Structures are given as C-alpha cells and as structure tokens.
C-alpha cells in the first residue's frame, strides 16, 4: 500500500528540509547547496533567504563567497537568475539549457539577417577581447554596432540565453546596487569540466530538488526547473528503488528520495525572503499557502514581497521601507501571533541595517 502524507506532514517536511523550522549553524554555501540555489533576480533576496535559515548569518559571508567566485549569480532554473555554487552551476547550466533555448528561439524570431550562432560567436569574441567583465550597456552597444538593423534587445537576450553568463560583483553584494556586468562562467571561476552530464545530470537535479523540497509531484519538479518530460525519468528512478511513491493529502502522487523521513513538529513564525522558492514556486504551493491567500501577494509588475509564515502557512507579507519592515496581514492573525510578527519585524529590520 502506498504511504499517505497529511497536509501538515507535507508542510512540516518542506520547512524542515528548507531549514525554516530551526536555523542551522552551517556555512552559507552548504545551505545554498541544500536549497539547490536561491532565486536572485532581486540581488538582495538571497541575503534574507539565508538570514531565515542560518543562525547569526553575517552578510559579509555571502559577499566573500561572491567576490571569491565560489558562488555565482546566473540564469539557471526556468531561465531565472539564481545564486548557485559555481561548480554546481557548471553542470546544471547545460542540463537546464533546453529551458533557455526556448527563450532564445523566441527572441531569434525578431532577427532579419543574422542567426543565433552568429550572434553568440560574436559575443564570445567580444568577451575574449575585453579586459574583464562587460557591462550590459557595453554588450548591447557592441552587438548593435555589428548589426545596426537588428533589434538590439533581442541580440542581448539571445546572448544571455545561449551563453553561460555570470552577473559579476559588485552587483549582488550586500546593500550594493548598479547595472549588471557579465563574464563567461569559465572565465570567472576557471576552466573545468562539468561534474555531471546528460541524463545523469538531470537525475541529480531531481535528487537535489527532492532532498530540498520533497516530497513533490512531477509537475512541481518540472515547474521549478522549467524542464519538461521528466515523468519517465522519475518513474524509472522509482522502479530502481531510488525514489519512493507517496499519496498526498488531495490524492496527489508524490515522490521522495528513498529513506528520507517526514517531519511533523511545531514551527516558529518565519519571515521568508522575496521570491523564496519555499513559497514562490507555483506547483505544490498548497502545502504552504491557500490559493486565495497567495493571490493577494501578487502585483502588477510581478515583484514579490517577503512572505510571513505563521504555523507554517502564508499569513502575511513583509516589505523593507525606509529602514523599517512593514507587515501586511493576509489572514486574521491572533493577537499573540501579531505581536510575535511585530517582534520579528523589528529583528529583521535590525539585520537589514547591518
């Protein structure tokens, strides 16, 4: 008989694996690895994601990882900018390239007399001739100079999708801003071969996702990664006794790594970062948020607020404004929970001023 998972167990297991029940006394890079990267189109979001997970997290630790080139910010899952261990990015990027290729094909429809291969070859030449990273504006200008009659935005978007470009510091450092500058991944972290390739890379991506986010549906793995056609691979891994099958609270078919246990414990109030995939990733979101509650977090420009979990579920949002953390209740909080949220908001504001 297939084991069943209650909604509470599903919720607690996700939060436990994401280190959102108890903060851990681990290096930031280890937590980044367990979360399979942190969504980072908002360059400051990763700092708040780590603050929610790492005991006494110091933003200088992540700054050092970025400047020492141990972690990178680049387009990965779903074509979105993620903060990722550089060596993992080296093998993940080829595994996720089909997602980016689809976006490249869309931009290429705007070309009149140039091909994707010609554009990417020219970009490689430009990076090779540059003494260091190339700013986004400079890359656009150089490509536009080569092909003045082609849409410059599509030229740049094609390069960003087709080549493994890293957004280099100072963008992405704590309380720093500025326009992005790019370098090729191997130029930035040093030459090397991917640790995994082909189907085994995809399998390891599935393993890492389940270790950090499981149990999960196949649809959730596909939505998170952007890849399609993963069901046969997941089912083959289950047939090989590498994965186990479970039944979710609404009769969903869930998969998990064989031998991992479910969690079921009390959870503290947690302020979760904007775009944090514990909440933000769409499929399987029911385990942390009711659909009508989450709908109230969405904005016209697509920007994500921070999320507040009360008893493990989405109950409010937070935003940093003028040095203070402001709360917006999405549910009717009990007075004790409201006081706890206000106390946590003060603590988070103190972190933001560091």
Quick structural gist:
With 354 residues, the chain is α+β, with helices and mostly antiparallel strands. It contains 14 helices and twelve strands.
Mean pLDDT: 96
Radius of gyration: 21 Å
Rough outline: globular
Q: What is the number of beta strands? A: 12
Question: Which class do the helix and strand fractions yield?
Answer: alpha+beta
Protein name: Winged helix DNA-binding domain-containing protein
Pfam families: AlkZ-like (PF06224)
Organism: Gordonia phthalatica
What does this structure look like?
With 354 residues, the chain is of the alpha+beta class. Among the domains are: 27-189, no CATH class; 289-352, no CATH class. Helix content is 44%, strand content 15%. The chain is built from 14 helices and twelve strands. Strand 2 (71-75) and strand 3 (81-85) form a beta hairpin. The strands form three sheets. It has a six-stranded antiparallel sheet, sandwiched between helices. Helix 5 packs antiparallel against helix 8 (152-162), helix 6 (116-129) crosses helix 8 and helix 7 (136-146) crosses helix 8.
Q: What are its keywords?
A:
354 residues, 12 strands, 14 helices, AlkZ-like, alpha+beta, 44% helix, Winged helix DNA-binding domain-containing protein, six-stranded antiparallel sheet, four-stranded antiparallel sheet
Write the layout of secondary structure elements.
Blueprint (H helix, E strand, L loop, with lengths): L6 H11 L10 H7 L3 E2 L5 H7 L7 H9 L3 E5 L5 E5 H23 L7 H14 L4 E2 H11 L5 H11 L2 E3 L13 E4 H5 L8 H16 L4 H8 L5 H9 L3 E5 L5 E5 L12 E3 L18 H5 L10 E5 L2 E9 L2 E6 L5 H18 L2
Antiparallel strand pairs: 1-3, 2-3, 2-5, 4-6, 5-6, 7-8, 9-10, 10-11, 11-12
Helix pairs in contact: 5-8, 5-10, 6-8, 7-8
Pfam families: AlkZ-like
Protein name: Winged helix DNA-binding domain-containing protein
